[in-house]
Amino acid sequence: MYRYSTFSLEVIIITNHCIRFYDYHAWANKIIFNRLKELPQHVYKQEVQSVFPSVSKIMAHIYRVDCGWLEILMGKSMDEAMEATVTIETDAENRSLEELEIMYDDLSVRFRTCIREHVDLEQRVVLDNPYAGILNTKYSEFIIQVVNHGTYHRGNLSAILRQLGYSSVMTEYGLFMYQEHLN
Predict the structure, then answer these.
(1) What single string gives the DSSP state of each residue in 12-40?
(2) Nearest to residue 115, comparing CAs of 20, 25, 34?
(3) From residue 21, how far is each of 135, 143, 162 by CA, in Å?
(4) What are 42-60's pLDDT values in tens digits?
(5) Would you tell me how many other CB atoms lie within 10 Å of the CB of residue 39?
(6) DSSP assignment, residue 172?
(7) Within 10 A of 11 (CB to CB), how many other CB atoms are there?
(8) Cα 16 to Cα 6: distance, rounded to the nearest angstrom
(9) Sign of the C-alpha dihedral, residues 128, 134, 136, 138?
């Protein structure tokens, strides 16, 4: 009989929790993509007076920030990650909805792989954010940040859709839990 050390079990539990939470984020993005594909094509890039000037800009922003956090999770500094993602947002904005969805799917695979293969998600790391300063945190908290950031901006997206006269879709974590339980 093989026995796990307490540390090994903690690493497995934390890794599984991070993957589950990230799975919610990927699921919520997929729900949004599916809804956007149901709407008239022009809605995706239609200009509005809101927090973001269009749905496409929100989706590109979420994508860029996710890419940046993946770079940090893989060991880059915040400055290096921000520099590496400078052109990503503009490129993502210029893509069609379908192209960006493929990019998101690829990013999700890379993110999940990084989480599974990370040496220690509870390892402390110092972030030097040019906007907020120094933060001593854990890699596992990056996943929480990615999910929370996406949730926040999916809310912006829902508000824009309503402003344009369209309903959005529910992407709450609770719905994810129920749907996951039913499958």
Answers:
(1) HHHHHHHHHHHHHHHHHHHHHHHHHHHS-
(2) 20
(3) 22, 7, 27
(4) 999 999 999 999 999 999 9
(5) 16
(6) -
(7) 17
(8) 15
(9) negative
User: Which residue carries 């940046």 as its tokens?
Assistant: 68
Residue type, 139: Y
d(CA 58, CA 63) in angstroms, rounded, equals 9
DSSP reduced 3-state for 163: helix
CA dist 140 and 48 (Å) reads 36
Please state whether the predicted TM-score (pTM) of the whole model is above 0.85.
Answer: yes
DSSP alpha helix (H) spans, the chain? 6-38, 55-73, 78-84, 86-93, 97-117, 139-163, 173-182
Give strand pairing partners of 124.
138
The answer to whether the beta carbons of residues 176 and 28 sit under 8 Å apart is yes
What pLDDT is recorded for position 13? Answer: 63
Q: pLDDT tens digit string along 88-131?
A: 999 999 999 999 999 999 999 999 999 999 888 889 999 998 88
Please say if the pLDDT value at position 142 is more than 60.
yes
In 3D space, the residue among 170, 58, 137 whose CA is nearest the CA of residue 104 turns out to be 58
* Residue reference for tokens 């009989």: 1
Q: Phi first, then psi: what are they for 159, rounded to 5°?
A: -65, -40
3 state SS of 127: strand
* Beta-ladder partners of 133: 129
